Amino acid sequence: MAHPRGGPERATIRRVAEVAGVSPSTVSRTFSHPHLLRPSTVERVSSVAAELGYVPDGSAQALKTGRRGVIGLVVPDIANAFFPPLIRAAQTAAEKAGLSTIIGDGNEDGTKEAAMVGRLRGQTDGIILASPRTREPVLRSLHEVTRLVLVNRDLAGVPRVLIDSAPGMRSCVRLLAGAGHTRIAYVNGPAASWSNGERLAAIEDACREHGIALTTLRARLPDHDGGRAAAAEVLELGVTAAIAFDDVLGQGLLAGLAERGVRVPHDFSLTACDDTVSATTYPPMTTVGCPIREAGVAAVELLVESLRGSDDGDGNGDGDRVRRLPAEMVVRGTVGRCRER
């Protein structure tokens, strides 16, 4: 069919409904409340809509349903290797739920992060905060005015996804103890990071259990340059092994040690956490493998459940919901027998 001006006719909701063999209201629900329909129906209607080039009117939907069909996802550093797989997994899960995603970068600054959430409130149905640096009172205030789901921040009363890296960190200490190391260092991540506190606490407990002397280095940004700079501090301590907050810091530390002629694992042992770049370092780095993609999917599921609870008249649908995902040590090639330096 032709448009009055001579171009192709714009696909309408009625046309999509006719081709898909459903009612116009079913087409509308496919894009506004897909969880109310069978997955097969959502898939069929979405396929027909894509084929016909139908684009739902977002502003009309928002007026009718009170929903925008958009969620926010804010991370502290989009360049950190931990966050791209989380973002991709969350976007895919959101698309399956009929939602679009706006991505924000807090630049490792809790104040900027909170301000970004404030700006996104009016554009989204809810926001996922991954590894937030925002102070607890501010987070609670934000939760009162918008739907929040946290990743790697344990805040009672706010839906959250927690990657439990503590057992893996204890395994790293146990591995180092078994290799004869009695003096090790921990290279801290950001001071405002909940994960950093959890990892350090687990390492401290394991060091006490195995009689290992632990020295902690000052908090720093988790990037390659931070890890390289930490190499000089680590060597001055006289320790024989180190555990880095994450893979990116570990990668930088590995490079800094190599620049100083220190061979890993012959002269020095090293482990890290997250399993983002450790398989591609030289030598491949022993680390704690974290289910990053699963965390992104789980966060979207929690947010969708919260929205569904609101649609069903169950208040904000939140409660104290938490998903815990286990992380385990992955042994590679950066831990060797202790050689006193």
Automatic annotation (TrEMBL):
SMART domains: HTH_LACI. Keywords: DNA-binding, Transcription, Transcription regulation. CDD domains: HTH_LacI (cd01392), PBP1_LacI_sugar_binding-like (cd06267). It comes from the Bacteria. The keyword Protein biosynthesis does not apply. The keyword rRNA processing does not apply. Transmembrane segments: none annotated. Residues 11-65 form the HTH lacI-type domain. Pfam families: LacI, Peripla_BP_3. One of its GO terms (molecular function) is DNA binding. This is LacI family DNA-binding transcriptional regulator.
